Structures are given as structure tokens and as C-alpha cells.
Amino acid sequence: MELVASLGIGVLAGSGVWLLLRPRTFQVIIGLSLLSYAVNLFIFSTGGLRSGAAAILEPGEAGSIAQYTDPLPQALVLTAIVISFATTALLLVVLLAARGLTGTDHVDGRERDR
Amino acid sequence: MYDTLLLLALLGLPFAGAIAAGLLPTRARNVASALAGAVALAGLSLVWAAYPIVSAGGVLRADFAWMPMLGLHFVLRLDGFAWLFAGVVTGIGALVVLYARYYMSSDDPVPRFFAFLLAFMGAMMGVVVSGNLLQLAFFWELTSLFSFLLIGYWHHTAAARDGARMALTITASGGLALFAGVLVLGHITGSYDLEVVLAAGDRIRAHPLYLPALVLILLGALTKSAQFPFHFWLPHAMAAPTPVSAYLHSATLVKAGIFLMARLWPAMAGTEAWFLIVGTAGLVTLLVGAYVAIFQHDLKGLLAYSTISHLGLITLLLGLNSKLALVAAVFHVLNHAAFKASLFMAAGIIDHETGTRDIRRLSGLNRPMPFTARLALVAAAAMAGVPLLNGFISKEMFFAEALSAEAPLPGLLNLLPLAALLASAFSVTYSLRFIHGAFFGPDPVDLPRQPHEPATWMRFPVEILVLACIMVGLLPAATVGPFLDVAVRAVLGPEVPYYSLTVWHGFNLPLLMSVVALAGGVALYRLLQRRLRSGAEGPPLLRRLQGQRIFERTMVFLSWRLARRLEGFLGTRRLQPQLRLIVAVAILAGAGAAWLRGVGPGNLPASPVDPVLALLWMVGGICAIGAAWQAKYHRLAAVILVGGVGLIVCVTFVWFSAPDLALTQLTVEVVTTVLLLLGLRWLPKRFQTPGERGPEVLTRTRRLRDLALAVAAGGGLAALSYAVMTRTPPDLLARDFLARAYTEGGGTNVVNVILVDFRGFDTLGEIFVVAAVALATYALLRRFRPAPDSVELPEQQRDQQETDTLQPERGESGRVADWLMVPFVLTRLVFPVMLLVAVFLLLRGHDLPGGGFSAGMVVAIAIIMLYMIGGTDWTEDRLRLRPHLWIGTGLLLATGTGLAAWAFGHPFLTSYFAYLDLPFIGKVPAASALLFDIGVFILVVGATLLMLVALAHQSVRGHRATPRPPPAPVARERTPVTAAGED
């Protein structure tokens, strides 16, 4: 299972990095999305991958790590998801504005000199 | 209490006065100078009020906890030594203020001058009364800063700007070194408290870090006190108004270095290294300064170099590692302050009344300004060490020390008396030059102004100082004796050696040296007459030794050539190389760490592979690679594929027991996709023309390189994740959070409790970020101008309208634009259900998966669905959305919940919880964290809507910008507008 998850993370990260290095703004934005999936999964995995572990405490009981999942990476990733949504939105708007101003969707605001 | 008040007033008054003076109108010269004078005199009387305590050997101390957990205290401490300097700072300060009142022209913004001067006084006072070394370093830098402002006061002249910049660069860099040195010292002693450090002298000297600490601290002290080779900033600082020179460059700022060396003398002196560094720097400065001073043509330049030389003398005395020498050094600090301040003021008077300071142009001023001439004569005689004046006594002490010094290098020691003699002779020569050049000789010709005596009050400070020179010279023990004793006892402790403050010690070697120096100086002056009259610039032999030129070359190199070269070498304005560099560095850093520490599978056995998840991830991988493949030409496909990846990620979260994450991921996924779809409309069309020539070789190489980087990054991250996942995860924090979530946070959903309670402050920061992003999005889009090729209606919409126009017989309900009728009705039905789901998620968030984020996203999705299906106009006619209001309310509610904890005397964001029994609903967790979560919810709704709606509105604006097509025959009051996502 760990192998599948880590391979998945790898593929996501690789695709994301590839797109990140492309010249079109849209490619970069998609790349960032993919990369943030990969990184979120990675952070999440630092708590250990356990299927079927309880995520919600029994009322009145102090939980222990033996029965419950690690809540800390989850809280971190939850924050990261929201922030990456915000950055994606901002980047999208910036790229639209840049495209409107410069007339090109190249990341540098002008086409590469040939 | 008395101590605290007195010390606070002593330190605070100048700063308060500075602020008050800064607020005065530009022309308020008299008010500003009266204010500054009052502050200085008040300071002086406070210093005097402290004398009874200090003279009895007591120490005034005020201690304020600053960061007590780190052992940092704000300590004000006034012992005898600090008291003496505080007296100099306030006393000379008062005289300088009086002088400046007459010196400064009413055309200058005088209040600003006094504001800087007072602020400098405060900073200097801070250095003097600091009882904590870090605090001392802080005030030290503050003095550099205010001296920069004062030197650059006439900022319209290039000389002032350059001088100010040079002084700041040198002294502030020295200050940074001092700061580092203080840190090392604190590391050695374990405390920054001055008293602890002073008591730990033996430990410091024996510590292996002693030498670095010493070098760093001395770098600070020597730059500040203009010691060779850092001396060159002082002559350039003469571009300052003369009161500044009289204050900063004779009595206070340059003495700060001396102060520091004497202050730390018990802790750091007494070693060979101290003798070599301090002694050598002092000796070289003493000689070079005195020698160069002779050949200056500018009165202030002469005084500046003579100051350098005298500072060298004091430094040399401190470097001799002898207690008697320390006494002589402190004594000479006082004497030098008195005669040099009065000489600067005299030079200023000459400049003020004649319009020039060039000795070659001045002569015979004795006749038009006899009083000033006599005052200057006495002061210069004191500087030259003429008997019966104060300079003579400290010079005698210096000779005695030079003769009896004990130190490791006998060769240097034999040179010492000779060097002392030579420097004394030089000082006689330049003093003579100052007096003879300016006041004697034929009547001056061709001066810019007709010279005459200055205003009586302008001369008054000079008179006071000269009187002090004479009184100390005649009756040293009766006048300055007690004060000197108090200061020296504070540094040396009880074992102060016997020293005698009398004019006459009998016929001895020092007296003989004095006589020889006087005679030699006069003879040298006569010998040099021809050269000095020739008016040649710069001293012989040392003309090429110009620290200034080296400084400027260094500055040009650092700030211009090196920077340019580095920029040319490393910099780029293109994004791709930058990103490539970042990725490459990240890979290298990861690979380097793996190389050094090794990486491999951990201790846990891998769990069996579930075929379902493997299949899912196969799809996920294909989606990711497909998105990477298609993002250039098929953007819609890429968006869909990324959505697929998001769903797989979401399922993975569920799979591995993270329902909250899955919920948030799902809702965020929907909103992100809608956003991207809305954006697609404004991107340029890009078609892959079949049969197109393949990419050039260069492009292909680039792509290969990027592919290699991507594979390396992906492979690296995969390996890293595998290594992480097969290790037992650390559970320190997890255990803590799990144990306390219910008992202290009152919730069973630990993730939510962490977000809204344990780490609520992080969440608060995060929602502020989200709000800021939403507003930024909105602001950017308000000024949005689409590219010309995106303005016209998309093809699909044109087709729709055309069809509707061509087939009017289909009627209103049959319009192509309304083909989404069924989803439209469904959406309207589902809308309230979605809102209910959102409330459900919100309320149960503390105990079960849900919470403010996902609930807010659900509401936003519900509304954006209305937009997508019903169109912007239809929705906005029915729903009055005010996203800004939502954002503001959310932020206020969340912050207010945090603030409310203060009202109950708890720290910010402390949460309170209880379970309430509501009728019908049952037991509801009523933690204050829920209120916080509601704030998050409201904000997320507002922020998400603001982004989405702002983007969606662009379509409407875009349509409105184009000339409208002729009105369709179908009667309808609103243009049908579909969301851009359909395009």
C-alpha cells in the first residue's frame, strides 16, 4: 500500500514539476495544483497510512495514538488545502490580468526571443 | 523607586524633547533651542541629583522585565563611571545647545536640528546608562543613526551627504561587529547583564572564545572612536554644522568607543591580545593623527585630525593594561572634551563671522576678535599641553605611563616614550598653527565677511569651557579630583592605585619631556613655515595613505561592480530559469541530505496492496500525466483531468481515515474547477496544427532537461515518501492533542479542535490570508482589461444566439440558450438542501467531520451553481450578495471571539465550552470555538463568493463592452448570460 501511495505522490509531483517549468501560465497553474496534491499527500503520509482507524474520539475519553489516526498532519493538510486554493485563485487572476495587459500568456509577459 | 524614576527621566527626557522639537514649526528657532536647553539642563540636574549616591560608591539601578523567560531585562544602571559620562553628555550638551542657537542660521529648519541633537543625546545617554550589553549595542547603533542624520543635516551639500554616509557605514558596521561580540560575550558568561559580565573577567579571559569576542567588540569601539585604520570618517564628518562637531566629534560620539573599552576594561583587558590590538591601534592613531593634523588647512580638519590623535592617546593609555594608565585615560577624556569642544566652537565662530575656515586665507583675527582669540589661545594651549592648563596634567600622566609601561614586547616599549614625545611635539605644532594661522600675522584681506566679535551668548559656552580648562589646570585636585575618583573607583573597584593630581611633581623625566616637546613643537612649526605657506594639499609622505579612497573603492566595488556582476551572472528576469533553479536546488538539497544520512525503507513492513486502491491510483497517475500532456493545447481536458486527480486524492484521504480532509478536498476541488473554467474564457486560443514542423532542437533539449528535472523531483519525492511511510511516525504532539481534545477542547473531532482551538491563532492567520487573497482578486479584476482577441463573444454563444434569432418560432421556452432548463429547476430545488447541509456540517464540526471551511465551501458551491445555471443577472436579481460584508463579518466574529477571552482575563483565543440542551435538536456543543468556526464559515463563504463572482462578472462586462448585436426578435428584457464556464 505504501508503495502505491508513494508512487502516486511521485507521479503527481513529477507531472507538477514538469508543468511548473513550462512557458504558459495555464500550464504553471495546473502544475502548481498537481504539486500541491503531491505535497499534501506527503505531509498527510507522515502520520502513517492507516485504513480503518478511528478519526473521531469517543466522547469523554482521552484518545491514544494506538486507536486513532494522527490528527496533526491532517490539520496541517487541511490548512494547506485551503491556502493552496487561495493561491491558485490569486495566480489565476494574476495570469488573466497579465494576459489582458501584455496580450500573451507567456509567464514572462512576452514571448521568448527567437 | 527614586532610582527608577531618575534613570527613566534621564533616558526618556531627551527622546521626549526630540519628539516635541520635531513637532515644532520649521521657523521656531528660539522655542526649539529653549526646549533643547531646558532638556539638557534638566538632564544635568538629574545627573547632579544622582551624585550623592554615586559618590558614596552606590549604583542606581532600574530593572524592567523585558523577556524574562530568555533572561533578558531592560536594565538602567548608573555607577560612578557612567555618571561622569552622563555629566559630560548633558553638560556639554547644554553648552552646545546655547552655542547652536546663535550658530544656526534662521534659514535652516532649526527645530529639526534640535530634534536630532536631543535624540542623539538620548541615544548617547542610553549607551552610558545601559546595564545590559544587548541594550548597549542597541543604543550604540542608535547613536550611529542620529550622528548620520546630524552630519547630513545640510543634506543639500554633497560633502554632508557623503560624510554622513561614510560615518554611518563605518560606525554602524562596527556596531554590528560589536553586537556580534556582545553575543559571544553573553555566550561566554551566560548573561548579558553588565554586572555579571564585569564580575566574570577571569572566566572571559580564559575562555577559548575570548579572542573572537575581543576582536569583534574592539572593531565596534575602534570604528566609533575613529582609530586607525578606521579614522578617515571623522574628517569627512566635519561637513556637519559646527555645534555637531563640538558635541559629537569632541565630547560624546567618538568617546563612546573609549567609554566601551573602559567599561569592559575589568572584564576584557589585561591580556597580551588587548595590549597588542588596543595599544597598537592607539599608538599608530596618535602619531598619524597628530602628523596629518599639522598639514590641514581647514580649521575643522585640523581639529578633526587632532581629535583622532587624542583619541589615539586615550586608546593607547587604555591598552597599556595599567590601572594608573586607565586613570590617566579617563582624566584625559574630560580634558579633551573641554578644550576640544571649545576649540571647535571657536572655529565655528571664526567660520560664522568671517565666512571661511581656511587657514591660508585667515590671519590677524586677533585685532577684530580679541576675546575669541584669547579664548582660543587658552584652549589651544591646553591642547598643546602647556603647563597650568588641564591638558598638561593628563599629558604628564601619559608620559609617566609611557615610561613605566610593562608589556610583552620590549622593543615596542622602548619606542613608546619616543612616540609620546614625538606626538606631543606634533600637537604643539598644530596648536600653534591653529592660533598663529588664524589670529596672528597681517590683517586679513579679501574675506567673505567683515570679521567682528560674535554675540556675547555665542561666546559664553567657550568661556565656560576655557574657564574649566584653567581651573582644572591650576587646581586639579580641588575641581575635578572627586569626580575623577568616583569614576575610576567604579571601574577599578576598591583597589584604585595612588595617583596624584597636582601641577608640580618636581623635576622629573615627564617634565623634561614636556619641555622638550614644547620646544620641539615650536621649532618644527618654524621649520615647516615655508611648506605650510605654499598651500600644498595633504601631508608629505602620507599623502597616498587615504583611507577614504580605499573606502570608496570598496563601496563602489560592493554596491556596484560586484552587485552588477552577480546580477549578470546569477540574475534573470525570466521565470522559467528561476523556477528551474529552485527545483534543482531543492532536488540537490534532498539528494545531499540522502547522500549524507542515507535513505531507505524503514522498520515497518509494507502493508498488502489493495487492488482497488492500486487501480484508483493507476487512474490518478494517468490523469496527472495526461494533464501534464494536455495543458498546452487542450486546457479544458487538463482541467477535467486535474479534477480527476483531485477526486483520487480525496478517495485516498477517505481510505486512510481522514474524513475531514476528504470533505474539504472535495468541496475545494469543486470550487477550484469552477474557477479554472471561468478563467479559460480569457486565455488565447492555441491550436495544434497538424503537420506542423516539430520543435527546434534547442526547445527539444530544454524539454529533455525539464523532463529530467521532473523525473528526478517525482522520483525523489516518491522515495522520500516511501521511506517516511515505512517508519513509525512520531507521535509526541498527536498524543498530546488526542488526550486533550475532549477534556480541554470539548470536541471529539480532533482535527477540528486543533484548527479552532489548539492552533486557533494559525487558523485566524489563515482566514486573514484567504480574505486578503479574495480582496486582491477582486481588486485585480476591477481593472481587468481582456486581451483584444478575447473580447468578442465565444463561438458557442454566437451560435446559440444565431439559432435563437433564426428560429423565432420556437418561442421563449424553446430557446437554445435555455436548454439547461431541467438542471436549472433541479438546482433551484437543491439549493435550500445544500444550505441545510452546510449548517449541518458547521454545527457538527466540533464533534464529527465538518467544520467552518467545508460548510462555507458548500454554501459557496450552492450559490455558484445558481450562477452557472441561472446566469448572473437572474441570480443577482434574486439574491443580494454582499461578499465584502460577509468577509468583514467573518473576520470580526473570529477575531472578536479571540478578543472576548481577554474580557475574562484569559489569553487571546482561549476557548470556553459547555454542552447545551436545545429543544428538538438535543445536546449541542456550545464551545466558544463554535463561534470562531462560524466566523471562519462566514469568511469562507464571502471570500469564495467574491472570487468566483468577480471572475464570473467579467463575462458580463466583456459582453457589455462589445457592441450589442441587434435586438433579438424574441422579447426578453435581459440579455441571457451564461457563465463563462460553458464556453
Helix and strand layout, with pairings?
The complex is a heterodimer of chains A (114) and B (983).
Chain A: H1 2-20, H2 25-45, H3 71-102
Chain B: H1 2-23, H2 29-55, E1 60-67, E2 72-78, H3 80-103, H4 110-129, H5 133-151, H6 158-189, H7 194-199, H8 201-206, H9 210-224, H10 233-236, H11 242-251, H12 253-263, H13 265-268, H14 272-294, H15 299-319, H16 323-354, H17 370-384, H18 390-404, H19 410-439, H20 456-474, H21 476-479, H22 481-492, H23 509-534, H24 547-570, H25 575-597, H26 611-630, H27 635-655, H28 659-680, H29 697-725, H30 732-745, H31 750-758, H32 760-782, H33 788-791, H34 795-806, H35 821-844, H36 852-870, H37 872-878, H38 883-903, E3 915-918, E4 922-925, H39 928-961
Antiparallel strand pairs in B: 1-2, 3-4
Helix pairs in contact in B: 1-2, 1-4, 2-3, 2-4, 3-4, 3-11, 3-16, 3-20, 3-22, 4-5, 5-6, 6-9, 9-12, 9-14, 11-16, 12-15, 14-15, 14-19, 15-16, 15-19, 16-17, 16-18, 16-20, 16-22, 17-19, 17-20, 18-19, 18-20, 18-23, 19-23, 25-29, 26-27, 27-28, 28-36, 28-39, 30-31, 31-32, 32-38, 32-39, 35-36, ...
Question: Could you walk me through the main structural features you see in this protein, from its secondary elements to its overall organization?
Answer:
- The complex is a heterodimer of chains A (114) and B (983).
- By secondary structure, chain A is mostly helical.
- Chain A has one domain: Helix Hairpins, CATH 1.10.287.
- Chain A is 63% helix and 0% strand.
- The model of chain A has no long low-confidence stretch (mean pLDDT 87).
- In chain B, strands 1-2 form a two-stranded antiparallel sheet. Chain B has a two-stranded antiparallel sheet with strand order 3-4.
- The two termini of chain B are 77 Å apart.
- Chain B is built from 39 helices and 4 strands.
- At the A-B interface, helix 1, helix 2 and helix 3 of A face helix 25, helix 26, helix 27, helix 28 and helix 29 of B.
